[in-house]
Amino acid sequence: MQFFIDNFDILRDAFLQTLLLTVLSGVLALVLGVVLATMRVSPIPPLRGLATFYVETFRNTPLTVVFFFVIFGLPQIDTVVSFFTGAVIAVGMYTAAFVAEAVRSGINSVSPGQAEAARALGLGFGQSLREVVLPQAFRTVVPPLGSVFIAMAKNTSIAAGFSVSELSSTLPRLVNANAGDLLVVLLAVVIGYMIITVPMAYAVNRLERRVAILR
Amino acid sequence: MTSAATGEPLVELSGVNKWFGDLHVLQDVDLTIARGEVVVVIGPSGSGKSTLCRTINRLESIDQGRITIDGTPLPEEGKALAALRSDVGMVFQSFNLFAHKTILENVTLGPVKVRGKGKAEAEKRARELLDRVGVGHQADKVPAQLSGGQQQRVAIARALAMDPKVMLFDEPTSALDPEMINEVLEVMTSLARDGMTMVVVTHEMGFARRAANRVVFMDAGRIVESSDPETFFTAPTSDRAKDFLSKILNH
Q1: What is the pLDDT of residues B5-26, one digit of tens each?
Q2: Which of A43, A81, A177, B151 counts the highest number of beta carbons within 10 A?
Q3: Do residues B108 and B161 make contact, with C-beta atoms less than 8 angstroms apart?
Q4: In the A/B pair of chains, how many CB contacts fall below 8 A?
């Protein structure tokens, strides 16, 4: 208990960094992922190709490599970002590929007749997607998307290797200073992640049940 | 039934060809549909009749030929195509009501999003149309709560809400239980009587006799015969049509 009291400030600041990293990367991943999924089902071949290239590139590259690319690669083309911003970009862009795949599978699960009926009424591609296809795709996408975002929350820990003072980065320092309380230190960090991921899992569950009633 | 048609062409297909890979599904199809005319397209399965129906609002593209609606050639894609589709009502075999929206929302979506109508005005008109097809009291339910026949009548109301110039029916009763077929056919018959221009792909010969101005018989991607229902059913000229009729009318 004494450990928590002594190190509360460090843990709190690190937790808030992880939380902020998760929220910002999550927003980036969601927006970019939905845009990519839309591109992949669009009738315009270059857009489809571009989105497919993006998804395959990021899905098949280790996140650590993406971090290296953003933080050390971007300055090569005269774009310097802070470590924190770099971490948001790396995690967000990486996760967007997984979000895009989840959303695309949801879109494919909606019967083609739904989009046909929308087009037959005179709705454009964007309107059909927004009004008819995506709201239905969303129902099947909630569980896999939840898993993607929970994985993402944990993936933010890679930022520790790139000078971002988030939760995992406190481990070496706290372990060194409190060698006798090794398990307590680890427990503290795990609890920090669970404060983020457990409510996420709960929210996904709730959402899943709510949209299921609409069927 | 005597023709309500004015003789002025509304839908014109000329020299239409379409292939699915090696399969020549539409072969040199020429068809002119007059304003107010009710054309029933019949033929064996795989004859291309559904494909023909779906080319008229370009849910199927064509490889050769020309289709015009009210004098305007079908645009290839984009806003112009969407605008044209908004004037062509379509009723599908499997209803395709929007599963996540209420019956009322199904009918108001097009008028609000495509025509830019106000919500109140669109709802008022939607309720009138739902009453007309006999499902007014179901307005607040979702499609899954309705029977097939009710869903198909809603689908007709949804198409009518756009005030279409022509209505396409792609086997509208083929997915229905037998006891629900008549309620849908009755709505279609009353539409025909009111002078709606209609293209109906169907196996319902009774409807063809009762409501059609013209029967078009298709086989293997071609229009084999095109005549008024009386002539078609009593004195078909082609062997293929005679054969087809003998098979379906004998039992």
Answers
A1: 567 899 999 999 999 999 999 9
A2: B151
A3: yes
A4: 70
Residue B3 forms part of a structural domain: no
Query: A109 lies in which domain range?
Result: 2-214
| Complex confidence, ipTM | 0.89
pTM of the model: 0.82
> If you measure CA to CA, which chain A residue comes closest to B55?
A120
- Looking at beta carbons, which residues of chain A come within 8 Å of B158? 121
B248 lies within 8 A of chain A by CB = no
Query: CA B138 to CA B149: how far, in whole Å?
Result: 13
Per-residue pLDDT of B157-184, as tens digits, reads 999 999 999 999 999 999 999 889 999 9
In terms of residue numbers, what domain contains B113? Answer: 8-249
CATH number for position A28: 1.10.3720.10
Contacts of A37 (CB under 8 A, 6+ apart): A51, A99, A100, A101, A103, A104, A107
- Find the radius of gyration of the CA atoms of chain B: 18
Spatial separation of the C-alpha atoms in residues A83 and B69, rounded to whole Å:
60
Cα–Cα distances in angstroms (integers) from residue A138 to residues A62, A181, A215, B72, B82, in the given order: 28, 45, 12, 38, 25
Read off the CATH number of the domain in which B32 is found: 3.40.50.300
B2 within domain boundaries:
no
